Queue: 2 jobs
Job 1
Amino acid sequence: MSQFKRIRHIPTSEKLADIVFSKLRKIKVEAPSGSKKRRSDQSFHKTLYFRQFRYLFPELEERLEKIAESFPIIEELHPFHIELIDVLFGIDKIRTALSRINNTRKSLKSISRDVNKRLGMSEFPSESKKARSEALGRVGSTISKLKKPLDTLIDAKIQLSRVPDFNLKQHTIAFAGGPNAGKSSFVKLVSTGAPEINSYPFTTKELVIGHRKRNKFESVQLMDTPGLLDRPLGERNVIEMRSILALKHLADLIVFLYDPSVQSPLSLKQQLSLLSEIETQFEDIPIICYINKQDTLTKAELVEVRSLVGDHKAISTREEDSADLEIIITEIIDSLPPKKLIFDKNKDKKIIEEPGKKRVKKDKIEWIFFDEDDSED
Ligand SMILES: Nc1nc2c(ncn2[C@@H]2O[C@H](COP(=O)(O)OP(=O)(O)OP(=O)(O)O)[C@@H](O)[C@H]2O)c(=O)[nH]1
Ligand SMILES: [Mg+2]
């Protein structure tokens, strides 16, 4: 199971206060039987309040500890996830949220010490009551100050749990191109991936992973990405940035699809410029280009398209052409470069080389954080 799916349920600050205070109210101490007078005995109040606080502080401590500890340590994450978190929220925002949780644990300890001391020294029920209500007020305001950090972590958990699980030992072929180019159709026809397909652009908003057997022993991952517009990196939205980061960190090979049809939101010139941006940004990743939707073109039009974008193979990602697509995907898989080196943190940070593969530069090392065998789903 992905580390992000392991992050515990995170309550809002209101919910957290609601849970602990309503449980606290249910904690009762049997009143000494007989007289009403005895009920107001100082020992009765002390016992009740001590018992309530003996529940409250450890309960809050445990809940906050579990939230903080279920969040992965940022420094240990795969660079893809680190950059993704940075793009989505800003690494510092998550760090601040986690450190606020930890500081709150310390503040609660100090409130706990104070109230226990005051209760211990109180001689009259009125003193005990005052100590209790002041301590509860402090706890309440401490919890309400967690509103922002908890909301940030809830948002982070939701967003990160949408990132599909990648097996970093497997090759990843990423499908890229402008919106509506047929990327999802391609992935869906040749792999186990089931991305949504629609006749309008910007259908795919998340990364989608499909698998395909390469041979008896190996599978490859086919990654469908949201469509990219022809614009500079600084102007890209979060959805496009997710694609860009996935291409940068995960792709061993990029399949770029041109959409020459009249429905394409990008002109061929814009698609050409998009490709050239991808080539510049990911110069070490091989790219194979195809002219998709060939069924929409006459022979003469195809010649014209090729004169503009280059002499690429023309394909069609319609269901009726899936036999041809099978041949194409086999060719693509056959042209995969050797898998990048991997870095196995379970093996004393030793670099592992695949047999027969050449050593590559240190900055290409990848971290294994997810193992297929690890899956609990
Ligand atoms: N005529 C024709 N239509 C195609 C072909 N491939 C895909 N389409 C259609 O093009 C539209 C977009 O296909 P998708 O696979 O969703 O395209 P996409 O690149 O994933 O689009 P986004 O996720 O929005 O970027 C759908 O209506 C498909 O049916 C093709 O080879 N020929
Ligand atoms: Mg799509």
Job 2
Amino acid sequence: MSYFLFQTLHVAGVLGVFAALGAICLGDSEKHRKMATILHGASLLVVLLFGLHLLFSLKLTGSGGWWHVKILLWLVLGVAPALSRRKVLPPGILLGICLALGTVAAFLGLAKPF
Ligand code: HEM
């Protein structure tokens, strides 16, 4: 499989994570929130698997600390549904923070700044 395919699948996973987070944070139907939670978990797995595949196949493990930060951001996006359920933050604020963290993760993947 080609490099572009793995990149595309990594980004597809990201799309799934954020579609799901939108429904989890802002949805008002319990059934839909449950389906979104499944999409969230499956998409996170896709992001991680293809992200790690890119990291090792492109021999980027020694390229700096940027990817460690991406794994931390991935973990935060992973606990966001639990924060939403416990109403730790207003739903719009939580979603906004997730979008900002996702943007940072995208920047780190593209720029590999450190
Ligand atoms: C937190 C959620 C994440 C988001 C929003 C995200 C987003 C992105 C985006 C938009 C790119 C640029 C497109 C590309 O080159 O494929 C990228 C690249 C990359 N991501 Fe992620 N990513 C996330 C998590 C991860 C994780 C957990 C890993 C595993 C270590 C990872 C590893 C990589 C690697 C190695 C690249 C560089 C690929 C290249 O240079 O072609 N990402 N990421």
